[in-house]
Amino acid sequence: MSAGRKHISEKKDWNTPPKYIKLIKEMFGYVDLDPCSNESSMVDAKTKHILPINGLIESWDYKRIFVNPPYGRDVENKTSIYDWILKGVETSKLGNEVLFLIPVATNTKHFKQLIFKHAKGICFLEDTRLKFWNKGKEDKKGAPMSCCMIYFGSDYERFSSVFSAVGKCFKISNENDDTKH
What we know:
4 helices; 9 strands; globular; 22% strand; five-stranded mixed β-sheet; alpha/beta; 181 residues; 23% helix
């Protein structure tokens, strides 16, 4: 049951709130790539992929990447959030750092197959209904789900130090760790 919500939103340009952009910049210094940008985005990335450029087929060979991907399915391109996270996993294996702002949905394939197996950390955000921005203004309604930041990279301590100001952070132990517990 969807509680009256559409599974596929007509709106595609939900922008990251300024308080999180500030933390992303604190984490990275600057963002090299935003593969899911739009004309209203406030993420000041050096490289932005804006439709009609498809950020999934472009190179992500950048050191610091921030991704606020489409949360629903792209029926036309037959892609989903899984495809975006998979691309993040692949580029993180090259030594790049990737931050994702995504819905908390730990029962999904992307959490089970990608995040829990490859991410270094997760921060469950305190904002129960994160208020994205649209065309430079805060959407008063808020997201219909809780959101989190997912970190792929080698500096969990820095990630935790920065994002613990807005949520509860956890290190994810996985097969990529040097030590097993």
